Amino acid sequence: MIVPWKATPRISLDIGGTLAKLVLFLPRDTSDTFLKNGHDHCHSQLTIESSQLLGQIHFFSFETSKVHECIAFIRELGIQNTTAEATGGGAYKFAKLFRDELDIELKAADEMQSQVIGLNYLLSRQPDESFCYLPFLNKARPKVFLPPIERPYPYLVVCIGTGVSMIRVDEEGALERVGGTSLGGGTFWGLCRLLTGITDFDQLMAMSAEGDPARVHMTVEDIYGGDYGSIGLKGSMIASSFAKCIMDGATDFRPEDVARGLLQMITTTIVQMAIMHAQRYDLRRVYFGGSFIHDNPVTMEIISYLSNLLSAGQIKACFLRHESFLGSLGALLRPYWDESETTGKAIARTAWAFSSTTQGPSGLETDGDPTWEPSRAATTVVASTDTDTAEPPEPTEPRESVSTPAPVSPSSSGVGMPPTHSSPPAHATDSPPSSPRIHHAHTHSHPLAHTPLRGGHGSTGRGTRQLPSAQAEQ
After folding, report:
1. What is the pLDDT of residues 184-229, one digit of tens each?
2. Is beta strand 104-108 parallel, antiparallel or unpaired with respect to 82-87?
3. Rounded to whole angstroms, what are the CA distances from 76 to 41, 70, 214?
4. How far apart are CA 17 and CA 96, in angstroms?
5. Could you give the CA distance from residue 171 to residue 452 in angstroms, rounded to a whole number?
6. How far, CA to CA in Å, does 68 sit from each of 19, 38, 94, 422?
7. pLDDT tens-digit profile of 9-32?
8. d(CA 383, CA 373)
């Protein structure tokens, strides 16, 4: 027999070296009351109204160095004396602090598993979540949103936080960290602080949009006076990052130029590594996520331009609206997620656990029936229609044809610079986020017709990790 329990707000955290990301889940039957009782500030601009999970998901971000602000926020929500799923190094580092301050026990979740679970949920269930950024096709509307896709595998996800991890996902439940680099968002922020004296991340990102990288980077044209045509090097390609700073009399460097140069140098390094890993495993789709991207037009343009250039147009760079919250969202879902099932069943299982559960030795049980089906679990759970061979739904609106320009042949001697803008490219109605890092979720009415990119993806046996089966909890 099912014993229902009163649904309550739930939180999960991803506490990294630079930022602490918080996810707040409000069940549908409690969200209105919760928000009316002095918590209307929880209507963050990235809020998801999830019909699958039967509630609202809210997203918030804090600097890890100011983790006490995060704790004060949770206390203000009235969430104490409970357990919370957490991932990232802070799940261990701050476990005692959360226990002492809030009587909250942080349950550490695997970081990579959480990121992939969060990403799979967003890709399969959230419209206008994933997009390509193509300002060289349409400056006025550079974001081309993609429809939800049930089985996006195989793919590479590049998580750009304080550092960078690159995770290859071959199929449902199988993942492998194939690489990474210490040159990440923390590197950009730290070097900008040393070289410009500015400490605010948002201000640095805004400054970078006004900078000219050609003032600090040495290009092929600076060395040859133009293109080096015999080996396919364009004059605008970077020959050496920040090499102009060593030239005699070179002193006219604005903070904006330094910030732009650092952004371009670090982003270029990350993209080069990502494309090499994608080519190694024959992956045609790469998702770039993490707080470093920050919905920044300059960053996304560099990533899109270089991904196209270095792969000769064969690899698609994709971005996410909830780029910063993959780990914290995945940590929320992970206890109820069984990757041996289809994504739809895992989501329905989670919704069931969030609404009413019974604890048993095999996890979820219903009326003594060991065969669990979403449609039988509860009348309020949206029954899954997923199948193992399901393809993404056809868009209901006319397809928009997007052709990628033929890229310049890549060269190992340098990397081209995308066109420099004196100001960020227009976003239609998209506007840059402000601190705390919560930006508005806009929808677009012209999703790109999208078919999963299949094809070989290298060995799937060696070094892969299987996500654990779920154990339902109250």
Report:
1. 999 999 999 999 999 999 999 999 999 998 889 988 888 888 888 8
2. parallel
3. 11, 10, 48
4. 17
5. 13
6. 12, 21, 10, 38
7. 889 999 999 999 999 998 877 666
8. 8
